[in-house]
Amino acid sequence: MTAVAAEPCGVTLEQAWREWLDERFSEPDKARTRRQYELTMRRVSAHLGAGDRDVATVTGHEYFKALRALWGTRKPATWNTNRATLGSFLKWVRDFAAYAEVRLPARCTSKEIRADRTKAVDREDLDVLWEPDAAALRERTLWRCMYESSSRADALLSLDVTDVELDRRRARVRIKGGDTAWLHFGEQGTRLLREYIGARTTGPVFLTDSRPWNWRDRERSDRGPGDRCRLSYNRAEEVFKKRTAELGFHRDGLAFDFLTLHQLRHSRLSHLAEDGVDTPVLQAISNHKDPRTLHRNYTKVSSRTVARTMADADRREAERHRKKTRRRPVQPRPRTRAARLTSRRLRR
């Protein structure tokens, strides 16, 4: 059903989606998600020219046309994300605010996403990231801690110094969904954290190099010593992509432009699965609630491991064949009557 309400409800489209965001994303830990949703609604409103239009007068077909114009040629994941955002907003308009009975058309469906099974990077390729001259101390600390804890970048960047227990190699953090959990680090990550934090006792763990342009708009909890603030996800991702491109990373012999921070999480969980770590332990490390999501999206064995396994299988098969050949008894040749008579004359 895509028909509009019979009469305007007196609320503009911009007022409606701002009210929706205020109700759904009032918690501080949802600020980044709110920014993404707000960006989608801003672009849709601007495309429709409907910022001042009554929300009840905008049809589902108009929303669908805006989606196709803005994200119709983008990747399926991008289309699905923005479609889901708009669908969530319209559900709120219908069921909670009761402004209008408007829905997306039935043909506005999600697109199939082809799984990428090459996100896990081989251990040997990642070794260059841990070298002292690979990047600055802040970046190496963030990368190594993210890899060892298999954490999302958002969780690590939200850490404060008071959340970190260096003696126990762990940190208390709020994860996706609002739950609180422990992140565990290895020896190298803990050493880098100790060196990077230094004598600081309060404030964010990961800080900007200088005063950001929106310093005055930042929350007090995001400010560190001097004019520095908490490092943002966008800046951390930008630096990571640029540095990995400069290092000339390659995957299975094929050059590619850059890695993403999230691939460190993919890689760590895949490496742990290759080492035989059980699913409950993987869930505890990655903070996944559903093991199906863990194995479907993260624990992908790398091609180098597959090649190594196949080579080991070939060596075992060749060794088995050699042992079988050595143990095979020598079969006596059948002797004819002429051969027996000849051997008797030689003995005489």
Strands of the widest sheet, in order across it, are 1-2-3
Assign an overall shape.
extended
Major sheet description: 3 strands, antiparallel
Rg over CA atoms, rounded to whole Å, is 31 Å
Provide the helix percentage: 40-55%
SSE succession: HHHHHHHEEEHHEEHHHHH
Spans of at least 5 consecutive residues whose pLDDT stays below 50 are 1-6, 252-256
- Overall residue-averaged pLDDT value: 83
Number of strands: 5
Question: What percent of residues are in strands?
Answer: under 5%
Could you tell me how far the N terminus lies from the C terminus, measured between alpha carbons in angstroms? 112 Å
Count of DSSP-assigned helices = 14
- Helical/strand content category: mainly alpha
Verbal overview:
With 348 residues, this protein is mainly α. The chain is 50% helix and 5% strand. It has helices at 13-24, 31-48, 60-71, 76-95, 123-126, 137-149, 153-157, 187-197, 233-246, 262-274, 279-286, 291-297, 303-327, 337-347; strands at residues 164-165, 170-174, 180-184, 250-251, 254-255. The strands form two sheets. The chain has a three-stranded antiparallel beta sheet, with no helix packed on it. Strand 2 and strand 3 (180-184) form a beta hairpin. It is extended and about 120 Å long. The protein starts with 12 loop residues before the first helix and ends with a helix. The model is unreliable at 1-6 and 252-256 (pLDDT under 50).
Architecture blueprint of SSEs:
Layout: H1 13-24, H2 31-48, H3 60-71, H4 76-95, H5 123-126, H6 137-149, H7 153-157, E1 164-165, E2 170-174, E3 180-184, H8 187-197, H9 233-246, E4 250-251, E5 254-255, H10 262-274, H11 279-286, H12 291-297, H13 303-327, H14 337-347
Antiparallel strand pairs: 1-2, 2-3, 4-5
Helix pairs in contact: 1-2, 2-3, 6-8, 6-10
